[in-house]
Write a structure and sequence with these properties.
- The complex is a heterodimer of chains A (787) and B (320).
- In chain A, the strands form five sheets. A three-stranded antiparallel beta sheet of chain A has the order 3-9-8.
- With 787 residues, chain A is mainly alpha-helical.
- Helix content of chain A is 34%, strand content 5%.
- Chain A contains 30 helices and eleven strands.
- The radius of gyration of chain A is 39 Å and the shape is elongated.
- Helix content of chain B is 70%, strand content 4%.
- The chains are: A mainly alpha (787), B mainly alpha (320).
Chain lengths: 787, 320
């Protein structure tokens, strides 16, 4: 071999090519040596680089950043010759260019989307003529062979072609190689559009036809001051997102006519607020007859158990079972209920009491943070704040004071309290809004125990078990002057007077007979309590409680007269509903006391909350929507929607159904459509379509460049209003893709008037994009500098 | 193919002699050098067909590469392998020649094929480089190597074509050229100096025809026969010098008698033969010279190409 390459000199005359061949071998050797020298003297493996990277990648100095198998050594690039993971280099691209898990699927779309598209387009392909070149290509180099093994980034994006090379460039023919429907150009075989641009119904339920023909003329007739949209651009603009003709904010368009529907001003019947917390009306007679010890309960309540309370009660398995058991019961008629159902109703009553107690003794967020909807863990503080619309504690306390004045005693005594019979509270229902209801003294007493309980946990005083005060027998200006049972235990009060100042108001009604620890309390009530401390040590003499009343809060003579007259007036003076009708039910002394409202007002609580907020009426605490984008309604819909598939009977679905019903307060879904998402419940479309919501769309259209070529008919040039379509009807069901648009589809011929050969560009990428789910780039991975 | 057979009988230096001017085509010592032959209709058709086939295959290759690229593949792999395959064929031809495994007839046939494939490889190369210049060091080395091989090959093809046009066949050897050139110079001198037997016999003063021919020799032919002709005029096949001399001879011919006209015709043939001899000498030098570029650079290019293929597959990211 060597002799063949380098024949020896001989005495015989050599052929003329002898010297040339020797020179050729020398050149080959020299080339090898030169290439090797250049390679080893150059930086890294740059010598082997076939060409400069595009300017966007020019900063990449290390080949191994993209060519993952090449390594960083001088000769480690030979590792690339050994078959490795063919997708490794493409995965390296994704370290900077974030893409979904379907990145290597055609178009980065999911399998289902591709399968659906293929199925749909196969029908079109059957009627489309396939160009000869395409057939030749399919025969010679079928693209499906490439796709079968998976698409790599380098399939389309081929680097090292120079700094100004357009990496995103892709030819029509490349697009065509994969596609089912094959044609030459847009004006040469592109299929007709199918109902473009409408892929789904509009998110906002807005019947253009009826507004143009009916509502706008009516409004203009009735009120000349109201602004009627003059042109499409009054309501639509594309300034923020050039792809989508967004609707301008509610305040600039719809509020003139629709704001009052949200706040409830236009509501003729039913409450204008949303019942959030309520004491549901119970069949107390039956419960008493069946020995169901539910403790104190107002018999005048005709309220329903609100869906929100159902969600709160259902936060654990026990609660869910409870709601399931009572869900189909008529709580106000339990005559036919069996023993299990009666037991469930009893448990429900106590659970409601526990919730009230917990919301007063702890924080609302402690109760609502563990709603356990959709197993999503603890809710964030912001979401809880929205879910409660920052309900003031005093609202709950005020309600408790009126509805369940002995709640603290009952809770601490537990369901097996000495007095097991339902005690009817017949209290005057203050039809007043919270702000004018004066704060009862109990709240003062509760406040420190609840709020400071956690903070002062290490201290001795704070570690003592704290109980709610006894029921108030006499109340003046919201201060309890006389607690229930205090007259019965003067000695114990004397004996234990030093137990603690702060706990003075927390008397225990059954003396030393029961010793309860925090461990015995329901979970929401344990906040701030120390379970190890004997309850007896923190008991407060009843007399002491009375003695602690502030002199300033002593009733004046006038107030005492008023109280007297109230006592004489009995039930007639109060506005109770059920007490008079229930003469046989035991009426506790404390039930006769009622909060004193010193300022007369003819404004009912609902009207008082005209501009939104919380109010109490009858046996429910209501929230009145404050206006558009009300966070309370939004957050509940947001939270419950995914757990509320249509027809579901879960508590979350109950809330969602309640807030999206036809007559729901806030009337959100009058305009915001509700979509059924398969396997994901329902969603209210609060967000406008945007570039993000367009993700997954294969077609892209930018309105702005087309404004200049519109005819005199403006937007109607392309979007032809088609009256008489059953637009609103399509919103009666949940499938957003089953719809009838107000407007006719845009025809391909219309686009083709400009986008044609030798006119405006008509390549595939003019209207279509490849990465339908977008590519985020670059990803910032900067770590916070640490000292 | 010019084959003049001019018999010229002269008397000089006390002896009568006869010069037979034959075409150098048949000169045994030089090999075969003939005049420019007129292309026959057949060869023209053959050549045209060859060009058309070449163009068609090139267009076919470009189309194939485009279709390959349309089918989501990297077209550089296709034309790259076409290029590599073609180069391997060419190398095979070189090895076969070197090892003397081909008969002379096969060599001639393979040489034609070698040239044909060479032209196709130009198309493959243009496709592989995407009709653009490289922009990296290693790529430049490859590009330059191929360009040198390609250009030297084209030059060699040109030499073959021009030699054939001049009637120089493959058996041509350049070794006897200097002696033959000296011989031609001597022959033309003798023809010019050959006395006219008639004028020698006559006492009347003869017209100065011989003097005119002597002037022609002194002013135009002497240098022409004693020196080598310009390299580049031979390289480009320039006929200017030849045409100028033959024009001089032809312009003199009408003014001399028939006997001198024969003499001038003999001189004219010697001038033509000297022109072909000069071309043969240049052709011989260039034939050796271009292969000193073509073959060694090919060797270097093969080294770089192998490295190129290794690097490409090592760094491929799945695009092929």
């Amino acid at each position: 071999m060597w002799r063949f390459l380098w024949p020896p000199q001989s005495e015989n005359p050599q052929p003329p090519s002898f010297q040339r061949d020797r020179f050729a071998l020398l050149v080959a050797l020299l080339t090898t040596v030169s290439a090797g020298a250049a390679f080893f003297l150059s930086k890294g493996t740059q010598f082997l680089m076939p060409g400069p990277l595009t300017s966007a990648h020019a900063a990449i100095g290390n080949c191994a950043q993209c060519h993952t198998q090449s390594g960083t050594g001088k000769l480690s690039w030979v590792h690339g010759l050994i078959a490795g993971n063919p997708r490794a280099d493409s995965n390296a691209c994704l370290t900077c260019h974030k893409m979904p898990a379907t990145a290597f699927f055609p178009h980065g779309a999911s399998f289902n989307v591709l399968a659906e598209s293929t199925r749909r387009l196969s029908k079109v392909a059957a009627t489309t003529h396939e160009p000869l070149l395409v057939r030749a290509q399919d025969t010679a180099f079928p693209a499906k062979d490439v796709i079968k093994s998976g698409l790599y980034c380098a399939t389309c994006h081929q680097e090292h072609q120079g700094i100004n090379f357009d990496l995103s460039k892709i030819s029509n023919e490349q697009c065509r190689s994969c596609h089912v429907v094959k044609f030459d150009s847009f004006d040469g075989g592109h299929p007709q559009f199918e109902s473009y641009p409408f892929r789904r119904r509009t998110r906002i339920v807005y019947d253009h036809a009826s507004h143009f023909d009916k509502h706008f003329p009516e409004v203009a007739r009735k009120d000349l001051a109201k602004r009627i949209p003059a042109s499409c651009s009054t309501c639509h603009d594309s300034h923020d997102d050039k792809r989508v003709m967004a609707v301008v904010p509610f305040e600039k368009t719809c509020s003139g006519c629709h704001l009052d529907q949200i706040t409830g001003k236009e509501r003729a019947t039913g409450p204008k607020g949303i019942a959030f917390l309520a004491l549901p009306g119970l069949d107390l007679q039956t419960l008493k007859k069946r020995n169901a010890a539910i403790g104190e309960w107002p018999d005048a309540s005709e309220a329903e158990l609100t869906p929100f309370m159902k969600v709160m009660i259902s936060r654990n398995d026990k609660g869910r079972a409870l709601i399931k058991a009572v869900d189909r019961l008529n709580l106000q008629d339990l005559a036919n209920a069996n023993d299990d159902q009666i037991a469930s109703v009893k448990e429900l009553a106590w659970e409601i009491k526990r919730i009230f107690y917990a919301m007063i003794s702890g924080k609302a967020s402690d109760v609502l943070g563990d709603l356990n909807i959709g197993s999503s863990g603890k809710l964030s503080a912001t979401l809880v704040a929205d879910l409660t619309a920052s309900i003031p504690r005093d609202v709950v306390i005020g309600a408790q004071q009126q509805w369940l004045p002995n709640l603290a005693r009952e809770i601490t005594a537990g369901p097996n309290a000495p007095d097991p019979q339902p005690a009817v509270t017949d209290r005057e229902q203050g039809n007043s809004s919270v702000p004018i209801t004066e704060e009862p003294p109990v709240s003062d007493a509760l406040k420190p125990s609840a709020e400071t309980g956690r903070k002062e946990a290490p201290s001795k005083e704070a570690s003592k078990t704290k109980y709610d005060p006894p029921a108030c027998l006499m109340r003046v200006l919201g201060q309890c002057l006389m607690s229930a049972g205090q007259e019965n235990k003067p000695e114990s009060a004397e004996a234990e007077g030093t137990a603690g100042d702060a706990d003075g108001a927390n008397g225990k009604t059954n003396g030393n007979k029961e010793k309860r620890s925090a461990g015995n309390l329901p979970e929401p009530m344990r906040a701030g309590l120390n379970g190890d401390e004997p309850a007896a040590t923190s008991q407060m003499p009843r007399e002491k409680v009375a003695n602690q009343s502030d002199d300033l809060l002593q009733p004046t003579e006038e107030e005492l007269r008023e109280m007297k007259s109230r006592d004489k007036g009995g039930a007639s003076a109060s506005q109770t509903r059920g007490a008079a009708a229930q003469p046989n039910v035991i009426s506790r002394p404390q039930a006769k006391t009622a909060p004193l409202i010193s300022i007369e007002s003819n404004v009912d609580p609902e009207s008082w909350s005209e501009y939104g907020g919380w109010y109490r009426q009858d046996y429910a605490i209501f929230y009145r929507p404050a206006g558009h984008k009300d966070k309370f309604i939004y957050s509940w819909l947001f939270l419950t929607g995914p757990q509320a598939p249509k027809g579901d009977r879960s508590p979350a679905a109950a809330v969602f159904d309640f807030l999206t019903s036809k007559d729901a307060q806030g009337a959100c879904t009058k305009c915001h459509s509700v979509d059924d998402i398969q396997g994901k419940g329902r969603v209210v479309n609060f967000s406008q379509p945007s570039a993000e919501t367009k993700q997954g769309s294969f077609t892209t259209f930018i309105h702005e460049p087309h404004f200049g070529v519109m005819e005199n008919r403006g937007c109607l040039t392309c979007h032809k209003l088609e009256k008489g379509r059953r637009y609103l009807k399509s919103y009666e069901q949940g499938d957003p893709h089953n719809f009838a648009s107000n407007f006719g589809a845009v025809s391909k011929d219309l686009c083709q008037t400009c986008h044609a050969t030798k006119k405006v560009r008509q390549d595939c990428l003019t209207c279509h994009k490849y990465h339908v789910n977008g590519v985020i780039m670059p990803i910032i991975n900067t770590k916070i500098p640490m000292p | 193919m010019a084959t003049s057979q001019v018999g010229l009988i002269g008397v000089g230096n006390g002896r009568t002699w006869r010069i037979g001017v034959r075409s150098v085509l048949q000169h045994p010592s030089v090999g075969a050098i003939g005049g420019r032959g007129l292309s026959s209709a057949g060869s023209l058709i053959t050549r045209t067909i060859r060009v058309v086939v070449l163009a068609a295959i090139s267009v076919g290759l470009f189309s194939l590469v485009s279709i390959y690229g349309y089918a989501l593949r990297d077209p550089r792999y296709l034309d790259g392998w076409v290029l590599a395959g073609g180069m391997s064929l060419q190398l095979g031809f070189h090895v076969a020649i070197k090892t003397n495994k081909l008969s002379p007839k096969s060599v001639a046939r393979w040489r034609k094929f070698h040239i044909f494939v060479g032209y196709l490889l130009i198309a493959a190369f243009l496709s592989h480089t995407n009709f653009s210049l490289p922009d990296a060091g290693f790529e430049w080395a490859l590009w330059t190597g191929f360009a040198l091989v390609m250009l030297s090959g084209i030059f060699g093809t040109y030499l073959t074509w021009s030699a054939k046009a001049k009637g120089i066949d493959d058996r041509f050897s350049s070794d006897p050229i200097p002696s033959r050139a000296a011989e031609l110079a001597r022959e033309v001198r003798e023809v010019v100096a050959m006395p006219d037997p008639a004028s020698v016999a006559s006492a009347l003063p003869a017209p100065p025809h011989d003097a005119w021919i002597a002037d022609l020799y002194a002013n135009h032919l002497k240098d022409y026969f004693e020196r080598r002709r310009n390299f580049f005029s031979c390289l480009v096949g320039s006929q200017n010098a030849l045409q100028r001399l033959t024009a001089e001879i032809d312009s003199l011919s009408p003014y001399v008698d028939a006997r001198r006209q024969e003499k001038l015709a003999a001189i004219r043939n010697l001038v033509i033969e000297k022109d072909r001899l000069d071309f043969a000498r240049v052709h011989s030098a260039l034939s050796r010279g271009w292969q000193f570029v073509h073959v060694p650079v090919t060797y270097g290019l093969i080294v770089l190409s192998v490295l190129h293929v290794l690097v490409v597959y090592s760094y491929s990211s799945g695009g092929w």
